[in-house]
């Protein structure tokens, strides 16, 4: 079961990256990992660094895919981006936006811009 979910997740990230590139986003990093967590995609739209969480759901019986990105997951994504920012020597004023790309069972992408705000690790 876990291998199948991983495969769907990998396919979803490929589909999301292709969708975003068609929308004018330049993908800078895929699957950025560090000890704090993982960011599925990091992109640039000409104005913002985009921190993108990709979520796939076959059915909405248990809620929308974006609902799986709860407060704790958001906080982990933000902490991971802080590490990315440090590694890339980006200052704290670098414009960043946290988005979610939902992928339905038909492979359609739904881009939720400004899905959540930055959450500092001291909050």
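-> sequence recovered:
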């Amino acid at each position: 079961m876990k291998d199948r979910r991983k495969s769907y997740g990998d396919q979803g990230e490929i589909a999301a990256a292709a969708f975003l590139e068609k929308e004018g986003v330049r993908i800078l990093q895929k699957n950025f990992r560090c000890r704090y967590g993982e960011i599925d995609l990091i992109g640039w739209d000409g104005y913002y660094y985009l921190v993108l969480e990709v979520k796939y759901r076959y059915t909405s019986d248990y809620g929308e895919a974006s609902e799986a990105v709860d407060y704790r997951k958001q906080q982990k994504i933000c902490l991971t981006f802080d590490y990315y920012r440090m590694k890339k020597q980006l200052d704290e004023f670098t414009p960043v936006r946290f988005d979610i790309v939902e992928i339905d069972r038909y492979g359609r992408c739904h881009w939720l811009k400004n899905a959540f705000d930055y959450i500092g690790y001291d909050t």
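The mean pLDDT is 88.
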